[in-house]
Amino acid sequence: MTLSDMLTLVRRDLKDETEPYRWSDAELERHILHAVKDFSGEVPYEQKAAVATTAGSKEISLAALTGRIMVEAVEYPLNQYPRSYPRYSLWEDTIYLSGDEIPDGSNAYIYYGKLHTLGSASTIPARYEDLLAVGACGYAAVEWAAYAINRVNTGGNTTPREFLNWGNQKLAVFWGELKRLGRRNKVRIRQLYTA
């Protein structure tokens, strides 16, 4: 799905398919990308990268990993059986390995999550596209409720409250599903092998 496809889906869910549109394309794209960012925080795009270590240093720079939002594991040294996943600490763009192993300049694998993309191509699994549309609709409705306060509305002076209620219901569904899907709510084993 592309951003254009998602925009069409969100317009359909908002019943905003005929001109003049209630929301501009730019406004809806902002709400869609807001939902994508929230989704990425809970269900990040899983990546694995080979990153060079520095001989004699336990610090590994992650500056080259753009869009990174979390680090799941570090594998070092490579080509071990069982695989070696040392303990580490993370500060900004630097990992500090806590184990006894001192890197020799060879590569380490970094297992990390990054922001999903939605543009001309998408990294979002198809099964979550409708969930993103729900989140984008919720953000759009809440934004419209704020805009509609103290304005003349053909629906009467309850229109802002109705938009707010509907938007909050959509966001409750969106955040409820994100909480259920989120990696923070799953049991994770951090130490896979004993030394």
Explained architecture:
The chain has 195 residues and is α+β, with helices and mostly antiparallel strands. The chain has two domains: 3-42 and 118-183; 46-114, no CATH class. Helices cover 37% and strands 18% of the residues. The protein has four helices and six strands. The strands form two sheets. A three-stranded antiparallel β-sheet has the order 1-6-3, with no helix packed on it. A hairpin with a 2-residue loop joins strand 4 (88-91) and strand 5 (94-97). Helix 1 (3-14) crosses helix 3, helix 2 (25-42) packs across helix 3 and helix 3 packs antiparallel against helix 4 (159-181). The longest helix is centred in the last third of the chain and has 23 residues, at 159-181. The relative contact order is 0.19.
Spatial order of strands in the largest sheet: 1-6-3
Topology as H/E string? HHEEEEEEHH
- Main beta sheet, described? 3 strands, antiparallel
Report the structural category.
alpha+beta
Which regions have little confidence, pLDDT < 50, spanning 5+ residues? Answer: none
Give me the count of strands: 6
Tell me the distance between the termini. Answer: 45 Å
Give the overall shape, derived from the CA principal axes: elongated
Helix amount = 25-40%
Q: How many separate helices?
A: 4
